[in-house]
């Protein structure tokens, strides 16, 4: 990734939570950069993936505390931005799609109104133009009866459709970067592949950057250009998805070994033998 293509640069990011038993360090000094490419962040539950995604948009809720040397977007350090400036960044320049649309869509407002209001907020477009744009986006995410869905309430649509609506809503302001946090993990496999294909097409057509957060190494390596592997709040490895098989870190090697083998379905699943040293090992491999 060349310097001028860099959209996002994160330098020495920490997320800490004060608890009764002391400080929990959810993210421990990670640094990475993202260009107009698809970057997957993979790691087990609790490894700090979501906190990393939320930190970029400065969405860590108190008592959680986020610190970093730099979180810059297109050269501007977001850490210097006021809350008002951040509101302009969120959903406008950088959008985030969460796991469950039920928590992100307003249950008492029709789908169409939510999408068109989101658009109007950023573009200042008229009601008519916003409705046209919303219907166009619903079609772009392959919703067959956009007019009917436009007038539906969130509880009247299926999970897969809800997730596509969220994607439509997040993409309507044409962001430069999309952060998708487990966007399809609540969906069954066929719907999941369909939603991913739509997201992939939109990302490619619009030349956006994508940060795709997932615990599913296989999914991420087939869908992304590069993979960042997190363990215990640190980045233990960064590599091209196509070179994942050459991964060096023992945790990544363990994850790869634990994938089911299609050519030998009866093979015994490997057990991840955790070494406490991993948690404190610096990012050992980074080739991008
Ligand atoms: N409110 C909180 N108080 C204390 N610790 C917290 C709090 N919220 C998160 N954490 C800690 O932050 C760590 C990282 O959480 P994060 O949600 O980023 O993990 P994740 O890798 O996204 O996992 P998952 O896939 O389960 O969402 C967790 O292990 C947890 O210990």
TrEMBL record:
Coiled coil: none annotated. It is found in: Cell inner membrane. It comes from the Bacteria. It is a peripheral membrane protein. Its main location: membrane. Keywords: ATP-binding, Cell membrane, Membrane, Nucleotide-binding, Transport. Residues 8-257 form the ABC transporter domain. Belongs to the ABC transporter superfamily. GO terms for molecular function: ATP binding. InterPro entries: AAA+_ATPase, ABC_Ni/Peptide_Import, ABC_transporter-like_ATP-bd, P-loop_NTPase. Pfam families: ABC_tran (PF00005). This is ABC transporter ATP-binding protein.
